Structures are given as C-alpha cells and as structure tokens.
Amino acid sequence: QQQVKQSPQSLIVQKGGISIINCAYENTAFDYFPWYQQFPGKGPALLIAIRPDVSEKKEGRFTISFNKSAKQFSLHIMDSQPGDSATYFCAARGADSWGKFQFGAGTQVVVTP
Amino acid sequence: DAGVIQSPRHEVTEMGQEVTLRCKPISGHDYLFWYRQTMMRGLELLIYFNNNVPIDDSGMPEDRFSAKMPNASFSTLKIQPSEPRDSAVYFCASSSGTENTGELFFGEGSRLTVL
Known about the structure:
heterodimer; A: six-stranded mixed β-sheet; five-stranded antiparallel β-sheet; B: 115 residues; 11 strands; 0% helix
C-alpha cells in the first residue's frame, strides 16, 4: 500500500509551459516532503523540499505548494525546458522514522521543444 | 567527493545464480540505504543501516536477500538464489544523520537482469 499517492503518471508539456505534479498522503506524522528528480540511467537527486510549517517554497523555476489540511502537496515547474525532461518523485518522511522515506510512484515529464 | 559508488552497473545472470551488489557510501555519511526500483512497484526501501548496524530490514522481500555493512565505507546486497522477478535497478543511497533534512544521495544504480 503506497503511503504517498502521486499523479499523473506522465505528462507532456511544451517548452515554456507549466508542469504540475500532485501528491497526497495520509500519515499526519509526516513532517518533511522532498521532491527528487531522476534522469535516465542515473539515481534520483534532491530537487526541492518543504516542511509543513510553510505553504509554499520556491527555488528558481521550481515551486512546492503545500496544503496541510488537505494533506496534499504539488510541484510546479515554471517555464519548462527540454532539460527538465525527467522522472519526478515526491516523498514524505516522519520525524519518528527518520530513515524511512515513502516515495510516490513517479511522474515522467517530457518537455517538447 | 566522488559520491555514492555502486558496482557493477549492469549484471546479467541466470536464474539460481548468486548476485552480489556493492556500494561505497559518501565518506562521513552514517546512514546507508538499499532501494529497488521497478516499473511496477516504483522505489522500494529494502533495508537501511545506521553506523553499520541494520536498523530496518522490513522491506527485504524474502530470505533470498541479505545485506551487510562490515565497515563505514562498504556495503553489499546479496541475492541467493536469484530469480527473474528480482530483475530491477538496485540503488544504494547514503545520508548524514547530523544534517537536518537527511537528504538522500543516490548512486547511479546497478541494473540486474535475471534470465
């Protein structure tokens, strides 16, 4: 049973467009929500992360929106570029399970020129 | 730093054979994780170590899988005997317990194909 549900499974966006990936969780003990980016043939790498005490975090073209009451968070990629084509994973971790990240199923993003 | 180093990058073996995957974590990191990635199940945590001690192996699929960490700079994941359903990409990751977020640093993975 996946503790973090991610959608969509894949999306195609034109260069310059906005990519939006959504995640939902049930466990209210989760207190740290990172997004990882994975290119083909590589391991995932941390992209951006948020804690539930803020509703939004922005780093460059990447923004996390967090809705604690709805237990949802999303990644927005503004001005999408072909180099952003990758698989994105949301994740969550609780303070009582420091080492155990629960990963979403992943979203394959393709940015067309 | 060289990052997390995994070997082999690719392994093709026949059903019933023993497979050993190796990992060298980032120097100074005290947590080490083994993940398995498949299209069907995504990223699954198999086991993780803290200071070379296994903390949680609840994700290890069955007794055919075993993992060791004899010292701070080396870990192995062994599958014996291997089966076709073990075909996947196996990732090793490390992190620092002194760093607030516990960011995971992944290796490039070992792609295992069991025929």
